[in-house]
């Protein structure tokens, strides 16, 4: 054991070689051997945040007076947008940096990296071994967004909190890259990225589990190697209420069940809101777009909504928000978030899922969490001629396929949720920082709205 340690200390150069007080170090933490991948996005706001993060990391490295790490923006690595799912990118990273890198760190664009703490942390782990490091999350109950995995004991499987970042040692990275190239990987849906990556790495027990690193922080405290504040950025004053048009998809069956929930919770925050149903009901009121009601997808209805949005029938505003009748949404928070985006660009915003991303598939904004579209995006989509293959096709997936085909990026915000709060692990969602949740199934939707989406100064008045 001791011999090995001696050996390593000969082979590896440790951050500050002159510091004799440090405990014996086991791994390498030379900044030049670190590759940091920022999970940046193509949308101009996010691309800019990504550049700023990269600049900050490089400045910090320079002020430490050591070599510079390699800092990459994920959206720049390829034109294929589906590579946000990371695994398809590993072979390329391996080909370019496989020889020179000791560690690969993956962070979000709002994740701060404290390089000198990170160096200390990484030294604890011998880099020629396989390590998967991060802040551990686990499900408390079987979750639909994880396909109810580990339903006997949901707490048994750990996956990294994306906000805190996660790291792969070179040895593990190399083997994963080889697996991705040699196995004919099938992928259907990409829903919750770090859970899926952790499953891929764990490989039914043949690969390593996630090792918890306390210094990978999803909130700010002392001695953090990574830090995170929150996902709801402050880009200035909220977008005007008058600049948002909300379309609620409903049908006769839910007029008396779900529509009253919308009315008693978030409807009051909308200036322009219409309910679209297969039956006209003046008491709500609903509008019948003449599209037959379908049980599964709502492609026909959603395309009719977009045509109406561009028509003279409704006020001309910058933003279209399409939700289900069982979506719960905070319009005040959405207005604050939308200030970050330029409506003159084609923007498609919400919770991003992927379909077939290993085989050049497409991304889409999942419908239940709310689909936010700029007028420009709606115009481009409709004039492209892209359309539903049937009225009951899944609207969100068809929109995603169309946007991918015409080169409009699908922008992700983790503030939107296709499922209910308890489908997401603890620290990932906080009551102050969510824009939407979805589904009334076995919960009290009004309580979900009050607890998770209503802002506290309003809550106090109750
Ligand atoms: C992106 O993913 C595709 C597979 O879907 C792959 O062929 C391509 O090389 C990837 N791009 C990069 C930069 O890794
Ligand atoms: C409207 O949709 C409901 C399902 O909510 C269905 O039962 C009903 O037959 C439809 N009515 C018409 C007139 O299409």
Radius of gyration: 24 Å
* Backbone shape: elongated
* Largest sheet: spatial strand order: 14-13-12-15-20-17-21
Number of helices: 14
Number of domains: 2
Beta strands, count = 22
What share of residues are in beta strands?
Answer: 15-25%
Sketch the major β-sheet. 7 strands, mixed
What CATH architecture label of the largest domain applies? Alpha-Beta Complex
Structural class: alpha/beta
CATH T-level topology of the largest domain: Spore Coat Polysaccharide Biosynthesis Protein SpsA, Chain A
Low-pLDDT residue intervals, each spanning 5 or more residues: 1-24, 458-462
CATH class of the largest domain: Alpha Beta
Bound molecule kinds, no repeats: 2-acetamido-2-deoxy-beta-D-glucopyranose
Q: Note the gap between the termini.
A: 64 Å
| Helix-residue proportion | 25-40%
Whole-number average pLDDT? Answer: 90
Account of the 3D structure:
The protein has 462 residues and is α/β, with parallel strands linked by helices. It folds into two domains: 31-228, Spore Coat Polysaccharide Biosynthesis Protein SpsA, Chain A (Alpha-Beta Complex), CATH 3.90.550.50; 244-453, Spore Coat Polysaccharide Biosynthesis Protein SpsA, Chain A (Alpha-Beta Complex). Helix content is 29%, strand content 17%. The protein has 14 helices and 22 strands. The protein has helices at 2-11, 44-63, 74-77, 90-97, 115-122, 170-182, 193-202, 259-264, 299-310, 331-338, 375-384, 395-406, 445-453, 456-460, and strands spanning 34-39, 70-73, 103-108, 112-113, 132-134, 136-137, 159-160, 166-169, 189-190, 211-212, 226-227, 244-249, 272-277, 286-288, 319-324, 327-329, 348-350, 352-355, 362-365, 371-374, 410-412, 436-438. Strands 14-13-12-15-20-17-21 form a seven-stranded mixed sheet. A six-stranded mixed sheet has the order 2-1-3-8-5-10. A three-stranded antiparallel sheet has the order 9-18-19. Strand 1, helix 2 (44-63) and strand 2 (70-73) form a beta-alpha-beta unit. Helix 4 crosses helix 6, helix 9 packs across helix 11 and helix 11 (375-384) crosses helix 12. It starts with a helix and ends with a helix. The chain binds 2-acetamido-2-deoxy-beta-D-glucopyranose (2 copies).
């Amino acid at each position: 054991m001791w011999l090995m340690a001696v050996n390593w200390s000969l082979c590896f150069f440790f951050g500050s070689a002159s510091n004799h007080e440090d405990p014996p170090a086991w791994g390498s933490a030379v900044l030049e051997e670190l590759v940091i991948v920022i999970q940046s996005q193509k949308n101009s706001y996010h691309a800019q945040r990504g550049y700023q993060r990269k600049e900050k990391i490089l400045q910090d490295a320079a002020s430490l007076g050591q070599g510079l790490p390699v800092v990459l923006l994920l959206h720049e690595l390829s034109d294929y947008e589906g590579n946000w799912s990371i695994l398809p990118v590993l072979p390329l990273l391996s080909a370019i940096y496989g020889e020179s890198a000791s560690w690969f760190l993956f962070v979000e664009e709002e994740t701060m990296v404290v390089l000198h703490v990170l160096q200390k942390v990484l030294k604890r782990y011998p880099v020629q071994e396989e390590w998967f490091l991060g802040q551990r999350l686990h499900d408390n109950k079987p979750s639909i967004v994880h396909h109810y995995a580990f339903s006997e004991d949901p707490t048994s499987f750990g996956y990294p909190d994306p906000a805190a970042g996660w790291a792969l040692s070179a040895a593990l990275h190399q083997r994963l890259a080889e697996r991705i190239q040699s196995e004919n990987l099938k992928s259907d849906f990409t829903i919750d990225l770090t859970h899926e990556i952790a499953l891929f790495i764990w490989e039914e027990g043949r690969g390593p589990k996630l090792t918890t690193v306390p210094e990978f922080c999803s909130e700010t405290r002392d001695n953090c190697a990574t830090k995170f504040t929150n996902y709801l950025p402050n880009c200035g004053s909220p977008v005007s209420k008058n600049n948002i048009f909300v379309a609620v998809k409903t049908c006769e069956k839910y007029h008396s069940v779900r529509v009253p929930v919308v009315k008693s919770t978030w409807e009051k925050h909308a200036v322009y809101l219409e309910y679209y149903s297969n039956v006209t009901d003046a008491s709500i009121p609903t509008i019948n777009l003449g599209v037959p009601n379908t049980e599964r997808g709502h492609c026909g209805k959603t395309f009719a909504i977009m045509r109406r949005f561009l028509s003279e029938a409704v006020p001309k505003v910058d933003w279209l928000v399409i939700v289900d009748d069982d979506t719960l949404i905070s319009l005040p928070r959405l207005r604050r978030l939308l200030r970050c985006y330029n409506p003159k660009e084609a923007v498609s915003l919400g919770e991003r899922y992927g379909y077939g991303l290993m085989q050049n598939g497409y991304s889409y904004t999942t419908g239940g969490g709310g689909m936010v579209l700029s007028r420009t995006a709606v115009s481009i989509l409709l004039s492209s001629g892209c359309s539903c293959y049937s009225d009951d096709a899944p609207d969100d997936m068809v929109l995603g396929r169309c946007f991918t085909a015409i080169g409009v990026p699908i922008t992700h915000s983790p503030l939107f949720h296709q499922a209910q709060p308890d489908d997401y692990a603890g620290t990932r969602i906080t009551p102050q920082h969510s824009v939407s949740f979805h589904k009334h199934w076995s919960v009290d939707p009004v309580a979900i709205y009050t607890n998770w989406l209503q802002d506290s100064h309003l809550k106090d008045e109750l």
